[in-house]
Target: Guanidinium exporter
Amino acid sequence: MAWLYLLVAGCMEIGWAIGVKYTDGFTRLVPSALTLSCMVGSVLLYGLSLKTLPVGTAYAVWSGIGAVGTAVLGIALLGEPSDALRLLCIGLIVAGIVGLRIVA
Model:
């Protein structure tokens, strides 16, 4: 169950990271409320995952999911560059996440 909490927490990490872009400096109510909800939910679920997972592994996976998801959505939604080196680096983060899951 801890890995499921961590996966959802990572997805909420993506939600708030992208959501900040749409808050207009936290001046727009609905995007701000959704972004803040994702922030709180992400930290709470991350905390629940720490009941059984090692903190170093959990933090690396949590932040890695957030980093990869945010980078991919930045490319897909915000027109950020998708050159080969950038995609390779994203792939390396994914490999690290998978590796941590395998050894934990």
In short: The first helix runs from residue 2 to 22.
